[in-house]
């Protein structure tokens, strides 16, 4: 059903058969092959067939099999989609931003500091303010890499990776500062944000264990905004034009340095929002590991979503489902959580190599276009 | 491959799968949530999991575990187990303290036990397992001070939290005690018990950090290093293995690392054991016999909850006098005549 609605969306724009193949068929087959190879990996590690069946059933049950499972899938997907949208936007503008992790860290810590510093303000003011602080901090942090590229030509891959490492240490340092560190603790952990700054949990009236929170609305709004920005606005056109051919864009009168900084800042704002989503919606505070590699998983999400906002939404949901279901795999079948990592990696391998997927499933594609675009 | 699932040969397995999913377990089930080091860390999480496995062997119960990949997983992992018909949920590690408290208060009928955390005031359905690790670390400090050739010892921790720093405190105090008794001037790099500042990797995962931190301490003259960071210490052991035990020895923590890390077993002078396996097994037994109640379970030198592992390969290198002194100090700590601390 999801694929149908995705198809409809695709058709809304003038998109040919090849695009649909790239956007829908390749990812779908990639997931299937990855699951099959995941089973082979399990076989290779002496897991018997019964357990493999059990683990994939658990994967399904843990991701969509109950209200709690769906709640966990959405909770895990939210930050991945937000950060993935930022990365997708960067990719469209020709920027390979590896720095979502650092932008999540800076966004998260900024949101936490704002949250507990202005405790006492009502939710209606404090929550948007904390979210905004997170987005702003992420945007500023990403702009550093954008600025360096625009002015000196420093490649964003290198500078964002370095900025990630700096952000980890910055976080360690900030979390030990007396103004930020939780009272009575010697380890790096921030004060908790007041309830007014937390993204409210949506279903806690049903069961206090349901963690899904208002961040999912944030995600939907962000998908819509990024879609509009990329495909309906002048700025988005300039992003895409620069991404397709920077030289041509420059000759067409687009200021490439401004575009680079603007694209990085927008990407950073979305990643920062992902960080704020984690600390305000899930944890209620910042700790050294709160980013949890989300920024790197989000790269995979953006690639799997083919850098399209709707694609990123579905890719994020899939990765969220894998994470929530992976937990259930451990509980029910005793299969290592690392296997989920393997399946995710395999999906990426096949997404990155569409020719491979086309070779494995020739009947899924139009014959005369074999060989890909 | 999947078509085979439905062949007669595998039909039973498939049927069993379906049964397992639909039927509910009747046996007593103990569930564990690990910290981020992973279940196979050779030390902290693995020792706690061994307690559950011992209970499986001894009492025939069922067991499940969930590994935490990141701190964002704690709450979700505990929640998944609450759904999974667990008779007792054991959370392993101080960092799970807040998540365990939240879950325990939201699910008052579920029995919880947490390693390394004491709630004040206690929670009715949570049994905390804590350890007087400083007593055993005191012995290790005294031993190391008696063994060092360079009069410099090194220590580093994972994260600056009480269950980690208690090792470093005891170790430092043991060295001080040796200095006071023997007139030596051995120094400990990496931890200051007064300022509460020291050397921390800020994670419990990176073996590379374990190697780098041990290298730094070695470069500063330390010939015995105590890494208090779970699997991170395995990296330090790899360095000691390359340098040779004449130049660098390691003191293990949590389990007897000579046994859990046999490939590098020879580099461990001893280990400061923290018998989480014993307390976890005890908690499960209590829960099975309806003796479970919230509060504290304390492991000490006296009840064997903490201790010093044998010297194994390095037994001949430790002078007999020193061994006798350690025995005397051990008795002194137990009867209270030697205060641990300053």
Give an overview of the whole structure.
The complex is a heterodimer of chains A (about 375) and B (about 350). Chain A is an all-alpha fold. Chain A has a domain at about 75-300. Chain A is built from 15 helices and no strands. Chain A has helices at about 1-10, 15-45, 50-65, 65-90, 100-115, 125-150, 155-175, 215-230, 235-245, 245-250, 255-285, 295-305, 310-335, 340-350, 355-360. In chain A, α8 (about 215-230) crosses α9 (about 235-245). The longest helix of chain A has 30 residues, at about 125-150. Chain B is an alpha/beta fold and about 350 residues long. Chain B folds into 2 domains: about 25-130 and about 280-300, Response regulator (Rossmann fold, 3-Layer(aba) Sandwich), CATH 3.40.50.2300; about 135-275 and about 310-335, Rossmann fold (3-Layer(aba) Sandwich). Chain B is built from 11 helices and 14 strands. Chain B has helices at about 10-20, 45-60, 75-80, 95-105, 135-145, 160-180, 205-220, 230-245, 255-260, 275-290, 320-335; strands at about 30-35, 60-65, 90, 110-115, 125-130, 150-155, 185-190, 190, 195-200, 225-230, 250-255, 270-275, 295-300, 305-310. In chain B, α9 links the parallel β11 (about 250-255) and β12. In chain B, α5 (about 135-145) crosses α6 (about 160-180). The interface of A and B includes residues 172 and 282 of A.
Characterize this entry briefly.
The complex is a heterodimer of chains A (373) and B (342). Chain A contains 15 helices and no strands.
Q: State the end-to-end distance of chain A.
A: 27 Å
- Provide a count of the helices of chain A: 15
In quaternary terms, these chains amount to heterodimer
Q: Any idea of the CATH topology of the largest domain in chain B?
A: Rossmann fold
Helical percent range of chain A?
over 70%
Can you count the beta strands of chain A? 0
Mind telling me the C-alpha Rg of chain A?
Answer: 21 Å
Which CATH architecture of the largest domain in chain B is right? 3-Layer(aba) Sandwich
pLDDT under 50 segments of chain A (min length 5)? 9-14, 368-373
Global structural class of chain B: alpha/beta
Strand order of the largest sheet of chain B: 2-1-3-4-5-13
Q: Give the integer mean of the pLDDT values of chain A.
A: 89
Q: Tell me which protein chains meet in the greatest interface and how many residues each side has.
A: A-B, 44 and 43 residues
Q: Shape of chain B from CA axes?
A: globular
The count of strands of chain B amounts to 14
